[in-house]
Every structure is written in C-alpha cells, then in structure tokens.
Amino acid sequence: MKSLISLLIVLLAVSLTLTITACEKKGPAEKAGEKIDQAVEKTSETLHDAGEKVKESVKE
C-alpha cells in the first residue's frame, strides 16, 4: 500500500511539472497572435491620434 501511495505521489509530481513546463512555452500560433494584437493596438492608437487632430482642426 505504501509503494502505491509513493507511486501516485511521484506520478502527480511529474504530471504537474510537465503541465507547468508546457504552459511556459509559446508556440508559433501564440507568437503570431501577439504580433497581431500589437499591430491592432498600434493601428488603433494611430487612428485615435488622427481623429484627435481632425477634431482640433475642425474646432479652429
């Protein structure tokens, strides 16, 4: 019985280690998604700045 419990603890520890390690690595899809998010954010900021400039020029 003791060896069964020890085996289960070891298996649990190994599976937790593998799970944590797998979560840290970024795959190509995740990297591409981050690049897309950055591009969208930059575009949004540029459009916002352009809109503010248009508002200012209309007020004048």
Outline:
With 60 residues, this protein is mainly α.
Structural commentary:
This protein is an all-alpha fold and 60 residues long. It has one domain (2-59). Helices cover 92% and strands 0% of the residues. The protein has helices spanning 2-24, 28-59. It starts with a helix and ends with a helix.
Helix content: over 70%
Q: Give the C-alpha Rg.
A: 26 Å
Number of helices: 2
**Overall number of domains:** 1
In what range is the share of β-strand residues? under 5%
Q: How many β-strands, per DSSP?
A: 0
Distance between the termini: 84 Å
Shape: rod-shaped
Mean pLDDT: 83
User: Which H/E pattern describes the elements?
Assistant: HH
Largest sheet: none
Structural class: mainly alpha
Write the layout of secondary structure elements.
Layout: H1 2-24, H2 28-59
Provide the descriptors you would attach to this structure in a database record.
about 60 residues, mainly alpha
